[in-house]
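ok so I'm stuck.
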Amino acid sequence: MRTGDTAVDRPGGTDSLAGRPVSRIGFGAMQLVAYGAGRPVVDRGTAIGVLRHVIASGINHIDTAQFYGAGACNALIRDALQPFPEELVLVSKVGADETADGLVAAQQPAQLRRQVEDNLTALGVDRIPVVNLRRVDAPPGIVAEGDQRVDLDSQLAELLDLRTEGKIGAIGLSNVGPGQLRQALPAGIACVQNAHNPLDRAAEPVLDLCRRHDIAWVPFMPLGSGFPETVKATALPAVREIATALRATPAQVVLAWHLAHYSHTLLIPGTANIAHLDDNIAAGRLVLSPDAMSVLDRLAAVTPPA
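replied:
not stuck anymore, here's the structure
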């Protein structure tokens, strides 16, 4: 799966996503915008500066969605980076809509098609390299109810049609269990995005399937849950001790753990701050000793597959 990309020093090194060489440390654009407000969380100039710094730093994998900021996120990406560099791999996702009241499920096949079309229009492109289907069967986030409880096969059929039409290049999955990934394998899955970090290892059975089938793994909430009542890995004394010994930050230690945990992990940490972005990029140069990896691996027990 690993591919050559010797012309550019990519943060975290280079791996492959949907057959394209990408930096193993990418950028998640969600934090540039505010949910429900349709606007940047920082002033527009700062947000555009962050995106341009992403590209200047060698990152060529940007994760977005039309439902981030009700289209504001994609608008920022278009305005900051058009014409897009040839090597840039934009990844979007479908499965939800943003309304004035917040996110709502949008899982019906016709809704998925409309969301792909909305992404294409907002980004100003004819084709999106990768589109992830965000399932909402279970938390975190919204959970499907009523007619939004849609079978996976009908969703995949619609995405396969969109791929045949050339509107998307590859299909990914988000927030899925091992059974769903196995069910989707015949469609050709480029990547899986699931919650995963040293404290939350419930997705390890899905990761094991990714290892077996050489599928890229893109963990979200990589430092721990974004919910205030949940402890983050960066707050643990063991993580802080490793960081102090390496003259690194706890966040860098956790990101380095992800990169070492599976060779086809692609990180997409997000930020609206250039200094923080540079800190995330620096995590790609951090080398964890076997002892440090052992400590981090023991932070949580692996949840047995359901």
